[in-house]
Design goal:
The radius of gyration is 14 Å and the shape is globular. Helix content is 27%, strand content 20%. The protein has three helices and five strands; from the N terminus they run H-E-H-E-E-H-E-E. Strand 4 and strand 5 form a beta hairpin. The chain has a single domain, classed as Heat Shock Protein 90. It is an alpha+beta fold. Strands 1-2-3-5-4 form a five-stranded mixed beta sheet, with helices on one face.
Length: 131
């Protein structure tokens, strides 16, 4: 994702947990889910604003952006296939978040969306820990 982020003038930072975090799952599917969230954050954030990827010891992988955020009314609908919202930017078919939620359900997890303090949204992949 680094070349795309650089080309779009949006830095991406990673905040890791204090130690290893083990979750069970298909590495390629989890990579797809994370890539979808980072791509969305890059597309919906203004230039020169930071995208933050955070790994938490509880098994949560979050992607925070500084875009327009997600209205509370739209938070359930954004995971529907082909739904793009009234202010959707050009491109995309509206499948990315539907794929993300399907991947997380297959892993026994979930996806949440919350407000990013200040501006934007935080999408979190919530995995059951593999302790």
């Amino acid at each position: 994702m680094a070349p795309l982020a650089i080309a779009m003038h949006r830095p991406v930072s990673l905040i890791g947990a204090d130690g290893p975090v083990a979750v069970k799952g298909n590495r390629h599917a989890i990579e797809d889910a994370l890539r979808n969230l980072i791509e969305n954050a890059l597309v919906h954030s203004p230039e020169e604003t930071e995208i933050v990827v955070r790994v938490e010891s509880s098994g949560v992988l979050g992607v925070a952006d500084q875009g327009p955020g997600i209205s509370h009314d739209d938070r359930e609908r954004i995971f529907e296939r082909f739904w793009r919202g009234k202010n959707a930017k050009a491109g995309g078919a509206g499948l990315g978040l539907a794929i993300v939620i399907a991947i997380m359900k297959a892993h026994g997890g979930n996806v949440t969306v919350t407000d990013n303090p200040g501006a934007g949204a935080v999408f979190s992949l919530v995995f059951p820990c593999a302790n």
